[in-house]
Amino acid sequence: MHQEEIELQVLRSIGKVTSQRTIADEIGYSVGKVNYVLKKLIEKGLVKADRFVNSDNKIQYKYLLTPSGIKEKITLTDKFIEIKKEEYDKLQQQKKEYEEMYDMSNLKKAHCTK
């Protein structure tokens, strides 16, 4: 899921930020990684890149989600939520086991001191 997780982070950033550098800073990955992911998302038809000239007369790209990109963002978000729910359930089970172990060790201590 690692690649899908990065794709979801990039998809979530599009619209809020305008440059690869800003996306990279926001999600904590290198500009090179963001560039690679954006190219893949563009190839898949999930993102559209529009060129424009900024105030410093430099050519930049504005990234926009396509309708397919919005749908993929929803799909990946659902997958991510499901994974997090499963992780939460596993942690709850581990916590319960630890509590039972703790209770048992306290019972043994109480029994031994009598």
Automatic annotation (TrEMBL):
InterPro entries: MarR_EPS, WH-like_DNA-bd_sf, WH_DNA-bd_sf. Residues 81-108 form a coiled coil. Keywords: Coiled coil. Gene3D superfamilies: Winged helix-like DNA-binding domain superfamily/Winged helix DNA-binding domain. SUPFAM superfamilies: Winged helix' DNA-binding domain. Pfam families: HTH_24. This is MarR family EPS-associated transcriptional regulator. It comes from Aliarcobacter butzleri.
